[in-house]
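Support request, priority: normal
Reporter: lab tech (M.K.)
Component: structure prediction queue

Hi team, I submitted a job for G-protein coupled receptor 2 from Dermacentor variabilis yesterday, and the status page still shows it as pending. I've pasted the exact input below so you can check whether something in the sequence is tripping the parser. The sequence length should be 449 residues. Please let me know if I need to resubmit or if it's stuck on your end.
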Amino acid sequence: IRARPTPWSWTSATGRRPSCRPRRPGTSAVATRSTNRWGTAACRPACPTDVCVRRDDCQWTRLRRDQVRVRDDSTLLPSPDSEVELRPDRWHMDGPGAVMACMSPPQADFSAALRPEGFENVLSTVLLLVSVLCLVLHVVAYALVPKLRTGPSRLVLCLAVSVLVAQGSFVAGGMFLEPGSTLCSAFAVVSHAAHLAAFFWMNVMAMDVQRTFRRGVGGSSRAASAFLSYSAYAWLAPALLVAAASTLQYLEPESAWSPSYGTPYCWINRPLSLIAFFGAPVLLLLLANTAFFLLTARSIHLTTKQTKVARRSVSSGGVSGASGERGRLALYVKLAVVFGLTWVFGFAAALTGVQALWYPFIVLCGLQGAFIFLAFTFKRSVLRMVRDRLCAKAADRRRRRRSTSTTLTALHSTLSASSSALASVATGRAMPAQTASPKGVQKPLLRRT
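Reply from support: The job had stalled in the queue. We restarted it manually and it finished. Here are the results:
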């Protein structure tokens, strides 16, 4: 591979198959032909990493393939009427339907404003910010109300923290960090680990509710030891996957299985690595969640036959406890459906190149935090407990303020009296004091200190 790519001809706009062979004889190939699922062929430049990515004089911008125009000498025009020409070392194909072009910031901003994906970026940013706000409110409510700190609520809290870190680092990496920087790579690692942790906590919730119905309401699945086991599983498993991916990137940075954290996006940037270290684990976890929920449904079906006998033999508290567990199961299933459908649409859009599939992915991904908040926090009972807690704190502050004011007033009076007494002693004069005699005659009473 040459440091400067050799021009090739790209004539797919005229209906012919693109020729990926070099135009000058005796030169090495610098592009490969790739074919998508519909049989459309395109040239993809085999460009070195230091040429395609590490540039300080331009900004990488993703453009749609049908938006750009490529000349016979392999120069690219960001739009058919554009006067900007990009040399072959400043652009490359990014999948079957997109082009990565390295342009100056004004050119990149203009192209981003024209391309349809600008709306997707705005929509995803707004929804992710709303999701982050909802997750912060959920964590604050959990911290304020001690009654919410039960076994199932701790699982939901860990899930909320995972999603909060994942989406927060993703938004920060996309909005504030420079692509290719060390900080961008660090945020990509954190976002990868947090996204995996969210799916592992979903798996823990499915496992916990299945154990609850299998052992009966009030079983040992809520014990502190069980929560410690869940935490070790849900936090260490993502850490091991991310550690393996990071080690591969450190040892084999040019490998197709290397995640290429932070270059050019603050995320995983190579398809095979995305499948191996994210897609495959997520798929296995979704299948496991489905199996756990099916087993739970089977347990409910078996116990339903004994409902009439149970209502006669157990107290109303046991029946209400079972109803509460079924309500928790319904919430978990809805949450699993939201998380599962989100990435089903995401992987389908990435693999097929259908632009319309990105919109359900963006909306569902942005609604994850909002769904957690609405399902577990935005309830009348929880809001009442939060209100009572805040009112109690406000009353305590007012009581302490009044107590402090009273103490300061008494201290001020004492200091004033002491100052007067000390002044009298210093001048050698006695403080006249008046006392009433039995006959009502006022007589001076001299007292020295």
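The two ends are 103 Å apart (CA to CA). The first helix runs from residue 49 to 52. Let us know if anything else looks off. Ticket resolved.
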